[in-house]
Amino acid sequence: MGVGIASERRLLSEDEFERVKLSHYPDLGKLAPDETLALARWLRERRHRIRDIVAARRRARRGKAAASGIGAPEASERGLSEKKQVFARAIRRVNARLDQGRAERRRERIRTNFDAALGRKRAAIRHHPEPGETSVDGMPPIGSDRRTVTTERSEIGRVSQAVKDAQARRDS
Question: CB 3.0-4.6 Å disulfide test: which of 73, 75, 83, 94 passes with 67?
């Protein structure tokens, strides 16, 4: 479920909120690619910083490390975790925009290469060689080594008549 901009404003300081606000559309679409990349780097740096503070507080609370420069170790890190999630969502939006830009540049590069290849193909001389010998009636038949059996017309039905005669003799 999405978090509203009002919640982000509540969790972040003014300068942080101004940078995170740039990660929302339509402001994100207006940024230049290098500005978008700089914003992504800044957001990652902030997210990593907060992640490290949360981890240090947890270590201090467990007694594994001294609580130096991280604020009160017994303080809740819930607000910091929500702040980290705000930065993570902003990074997700910025990364999606960076991916869109990469895909657009890739499509443009492919289109340019395609147009160049099509131009080369159209400019090339067509090569249509003579077909050589062709068969008018199709492929020549392949001879068979099998013996052909021809049956005379007078022989057709002889076996059937012999069976009928034998049956009649048995029945009588």
Answer: 73
